[in-house]
TrEMBL record:
Keyword Signal (UniProt): no
Domain Helicase C-terminal stretches: 284-445
Pfam families: DEAD, Helicase_C, MZB, WHD_HRQ1
Domain of life where this protein originates: Bacteria
Matches recorded under PANTHER family: ATP-DEPENDENT HELICASE HRQ1 (PTHR47957)
Domain (Helicase ATP-binding) ranges: 62-260
Protein name: DEAD/DEAH box helicase domain protein
GO biological process: interstrand cross-link repair; nucleotide-excision repair
Protein keywords: ATP-binding, Helicase, Hydrolase, Nucleotide-binding
Record has Cytoplasm as a keyword: no
GO molecular function: 3'-5' DNA helicase activity; ATP binding; nucleic acid binding
Length: 773
């Protein structure tokens, strides 16, 4: 069967569980003439590649570049965004052979993926330009050659931060001749990562001003020798769909941007299927969404339809890979691969290559494959659970149908309130313009780390600014720490330390743990790594660590050595760890009472402690037992905000039920918060407290899951009315009588206490929401 025949079959057999099937028709291309300014050589190369005209958004990008404008492109996956910046840059390089161009991608894999394409254009133009990647895998000898004569340099934020800018004196020629800075996959630069990257670009702008100060230059074709102010190299950003592309580009770079948001690229017919797994009345349990994904996905693979699956965690990648293989004959099972963080680079490259070559028919990934790595033509994508951000879901859905053929995108719901809301309101995803992405470059912890890096690179003067703030107080603190010397109003870095080496852009924790396979005596090998906050949950003693379809038993976690030693085993269960979080108020910044509640904004301290794990049978999800976890407590300071509900808004229920009511209310808000905060569900936590001396008598507490915070909890409390409106709609639309995982959750003695609760807590939650909205 082809894809549409299989979809027809699926529609007949699964009609009871298909909540919506939306067809988006083919879209014709909108073409534009290739600007004559690009010259005959570039036009020849394009013609040789079958390109007689540009898509309208590509032509718009070229014209903006030629007009010396910064711009950001936010068009769908596979719409030809690369040519938006590559064509004008090739033209610029032909006009000025000494010009240099920097391309920054969020991962090494993306940079490597683009390398061959850029070199192909250079070769076609008959130019011997030096097109190179510069990352942690680049050999030292090659690094010297790139520094000396690199024309196009493809790198990532981490390498720019720690491998290029701290050594800028040996990059002098590159910075003096830099004409363009391209930043791809801009939508990934949010939260902690984006806040760090914004500071990295602040540092880059300081260096550019040092080597290539702003000066008056002529506008091309104006005839006026000095008619505009040059701001140094042009910035070009490319992004998935978000609501505020120009604003985010400005927050990251400090520049003003033109936004290109309308795509002229053609699109094949696309089907969007919303699938809610069946509920078994006798067992009072729904089918696992991963079992449903394996059932639907194995049918696609049996019909030779290349499919990508997006799972929500590393463990789930491994579990779904097993489920799929178990439903397929051996000849097809071999063509199903996993792909996730923690795999070593060689493993990931092998999977990418096998997808391009067609030897892999199914790949199960975390969000690692959302980005634009070339993995060939896929016809179907199955996303298990809403990934937390619309831009992520758009990227996942965009992975199918990249060759204008009919394609299928499936969203399989978990029982969570958020997923169920989308099952009942699928138009929400298509009517939205995406999220407004958030960064907070002035997060104190991030800013302090980055200003040290900036001070190491170039001296600050008294009264200078870094970002929006004067540096004097920060420099004076560094003087006290004896890493900076102030003399005559100038701050000199004097320490032997190298600050960028100790600042991670991507993780709240600076330490990673390595996972060492000791199955074969005398032949131990590192099979993966994991960050500090995840280590207690995934590689504690006696955990089952899953990697590339294999199971490993954790013999010992050596905390101080940041090392876990594992042995390969055959296991029919996986481990699921739980942690306790204790919260306290570090500082109250603002307090305001309105309507029937009091809003609070401040900073909180979290103490996180993993304490037990469950053994979960892979086939049935049955709990086979539990064990204790003994790892150190981890402390974190972050932004928090909380709502204290006033007594007049509360429903009339006995006092001993109130704690459970607030717990159920917090559960509901936690499920829906990503739609309002526009974040991944792992970025934010929501909890409740009853008669708490710190937070209040009837409090709902929000906190960011990053050290220092990035403003998510503050945004939620400031927009609580939108969150409450979603919550009320969810409760009223849910068909259950007394509460279920799809609205307020279900009774759990560990979280709700031991009191005899009423059969129905849903009605009091509904009354509470009616009082608050």
């Amino acid at each position: 069967m082809n894809l549409e025949q299989y979809l027809d079959s699926l529609r007949r057999s699964e009609s009871a569980n298909i909540r919506a099937l939306i067809e988006r028709p083919e879209k014709a291309a909108k073409f534009a003439e290739i600007p004559k300014a690009l010259g005959p050589e570039l036009r020849r190369v394009l013609k040789e590649r079958g390109i007689e005209k540009l898509y309208s958004h590509q032509q718009q990008a070229v014209e903006l570049y030629l007009a010396q404008q910064d711009f950001v492109v936010t068009t769908p996956t596979a719409s030809g965004k690369t040519l938006c910046y590559l064509l004008p840059i090739l033209h610029s390089k032909l006009k000025n052979p000494n010009g240099k161009h920097l391309f920054m991608f969020p991962t090494k894999a993306l940079a490597q993926d683009q390398l061959a394409a850029y070199r192909g254009y250079a070769d076609a133009l008959g130019m011997s330009w030096n097109v190179n990647t510069f990352d942690g895998d680049t050999p030292e000898e090659e690094r010297r050659a790139v520094r000396k004569a690199g024309d196009f340099i493809l790198t990532n934020p981490d390498m720019l931060h720690s491998g290029i800018m701290p050594h800028h004196t040996i990059w002098k020629s590159f910075f003096e001749n830099l004409e363009t800075i391209v930043i791809d996959e801009m939508h990934t630069y949010i939260g902690v990562f984006g806040s760090h990257v914004a500071n990295v670009l602040r540092r880059l702008n300081r260096l550019l001003e040092h080597y290539k100060p702003s000066r008056l230059t002529a506008i091309p074709g104006s005839g006026d020798p000095a008619t505009s102010m040059s701001r140094g190299p042009r910035y070009i950003f490319c992004s998935a769909t978000i609501a505020n592309p120009a604003e985010l580009a400005n927050q990251l770079s400090g520049r003003e941007f033109n936004a290109i948001t309308e795509s002229g690229a053609p699109e094949g017919r696309k089907y969007f299927l919303f699938y809610d797994p069946p509920f078994y009345e006798k067992l009072q349990i729904a089918e696992s969404p991963y079992k449903a994904a394996a059932r639907i996905g194995s049918g696609l693979i049996r019909n030779n339809i290349p499919t990508i699956f997006f799972a929500r965690s590393r463990n789930r990648v491994e579990i779904l890979t097993e489920f799929l293989r178990s439903r397929l004959p051996e000849s097809l099972a071999r063509k199903v691969r996993g792909y996730r963080g923690g795999f070593l680079p060689l493993e990931r490259r092998q999977v990418e290559r096998s997808l391009r070559e067609g030897t892999t028919l199914g790949v199960v990934s975390t969000n690692a494959l959302e980005l634009g790595i070339d993995i060939g033509a896929l016809n179907a994508v199955i996303s298990i659970g809403y990934p937390g951000r619309m831009s992520s879901l758009y990227q996942q859905f965009g992975r199918a149908g990249r060759k204008k053929e009919p394609s299928l995108a499936v969203l399989i719901a978990s029982p969570s309130a958020l997923d169920q809301y989308l099952m009942r309101n699928p138009d929400y995803l298509f009517e939205s313009k995406g999220e407004a992405a958030i960064v907070n470059p002035d997060n104190l912890l991030i800013y302090q780390d980055q200003i040290k890096c900036a001070a190491y690179e170039l001296r600050f003067q008294q009264g200078d600014k870094f970002g929006e703030y004067p540096v004097d107080q920060f420099m004076d603190n560094l003087v006290e720490e004896r890493v900076v010397l102030e003399k005559g109003g100038t701050y000199f870095w004097t320490s032997d330390t190298y600050p960028a080496a100790n600042v991670s852009l991507r993780s709240a924790a600076t330490d990673n743990f390595v996972i060492v396979d000791k199955t074969h005596a005398g032949n131990e090998k590192v099979i993966g790594e994991i960050d500090l906050f995840s280590a207690p949950l995934f590689i504690h003693d006696e955990a089952i660590y899953m990697h590339a379809g294999r199971h490993y038993y954790v013999n010992i976690l050596k905390w101080d050595e940041r090392r876990a030693e594992v042995t390969e085993v055959k296991s029919d269960y996986y481990t699921d760890a739980h942690e306790k979080v204790h919260r306290s108020i570090l500082h109250l910044d603002e307090k305001r009472t309105e309507k029937k509640l009091t809003q609070h904004w401040g900073e909180v301290t979290l103490r996180r402690q993993a304490y037990l794990y469950k053994k979960i049978k892979i086939e049935t999800s049955e709990n086979l037992g539990w064990g204790q976890i003994h790892t150190p407590e981890i402390e974190m300071h972050t932004q928090g905000a909380w709502l204290d509900i006033l007594p007049e808004a509360l429903p009339q229920i006995p006092a001993n039920f109130m704690s459970a009511l607030l717990t159920r209310f917090a559960y509901l808000l936690r499920q829906l918060a990503p739609l309002v905060a526009l974040c991944d569900r792992r970025d934010i936590s929501v909890s409740s407290s009853y008669r708490d001396v710190h937070f209040g008598d009837h409090a709902i507490i929000f906190h960011d899951n990053y050290p220092g915070g990035v403003g998510l909890s503050h945004k939620l409390v400031s927009n609580y009315d939108a969150l409450f409106a979603l919550a009320r709609q969810t409760v009223e639309q849910c068909s259950c009588e007394a509460g279920c995982p799809s609205c307020i959750g279900v009774w759990d003695a560990k979280t709700d206490g031991d009191a005899d609760l009423p059969d129905d807590l849903k009605s009091p939650v509904r009354v509470l929401l009616q009082n608050l909205t």
